[in-house]
Design a protein that fits this description.
This protein has 227 residues and is of the alpha+beta class. Helices cover 19% and strands 27% of the residues.
């Protein structure tokens, strides 16, 4: 088997959006401030890994941190690839820490309703701290939205109640923590729980590759070097 040339670098918003809309089950870009990494194998664009402020500014408050000291891994959007996702995440975390040295931890969530149990985080030794409290979700035109994400994108949900918007009880997600500041390790490891087992349906960080898009290299996928 020939060797794989893996490249990971900062990428444009357009490249990250292309990956999310084609290769992530949500098909939607987060609205918060984002750190976006493009992934290439043998010079072919295969997706993006995106970090952001998360759906709420209280994301890291329970750990005694300021909102600027933590972030959320919000999208892993990859088409068919040969590199291990754990390796890809490891490289992006290293680049993220170099760019933002004040970050102390990263949070991510796996949704069992989508058949995810967090296998990529377990393979990367993230700490599992249990499940989130379920909250209401909005369903509009076939898409599921976190309440805050919908309001940021569309405005008040009340304007859409007569246009087909449905409000339903959301899922309780698995929460994983990656520690960047080792002074937090003892505190967070006290919250650690046994990893959940694989869900019944096969977990995938991205839907199956779309015909004609494997290795697509959109013209907007130019690197954005860190300043």
């Amino acid at each position: 088997m020939s060797s794989i040339e893996l490249k990971i670098d900062w990428c444009s918003h357009e490249a990250a959006e292309f990956a999310v809309k084609n290769w992530h089950y949500s098909r939607t870009m987060p609205k918060s401030k984002l750190a976006k990494f493009g992934v290439w194998e043998n010079k072919k664009f295969i997706g993006a890994v995106i970090y952001g402020c998360g759906a709420t500014r209280a994301l890291v408050k329970s750990y005694g941190l300021h909102p600027t000291e933590g972030c959320e891994l919000v999208r892993v959007a990859l088409t068919k690839h040969d590199s291990q996702v754990s390796k890809i995440l490891s490289i992006t975390l290293r680049l993220l820490r170099k760019k933002y040295p004040k970050l102390k931890l990263v949070v991510s969530f796996a949704d069992p309703n989508e058949g995810h149990h967090g296998g990529i985080y377990q393979a990367s030794n993230w700490i599992f701290t249990g499940r989130t409290t379920s909250s209401d979700e909005y369903v509009f035109k076939g898409k599921r939205w976190h309440g805050r994400a919908f309001r940021l994108s569309h405005g008040s949900h009340k304007n859409y109640l007569d246009k087909g918007l449905k409000i339903k009880k959301g899922s309780s997600k698995y929460r994983y923590i990656f520690i960047l500041d080792q002074s937090l390790r003892e505190k967070i490891e006290k919250q650690a729980k046994q990893y959940p087992k694989r869900a019944q349906s096969k977990e995938s960080v991205a839907p199956a590759n779309h015909a004609g898009e494997s290795g697509a290299n959109p013209t907007s996928a130019h690197n954005e070097k860190a300043a």
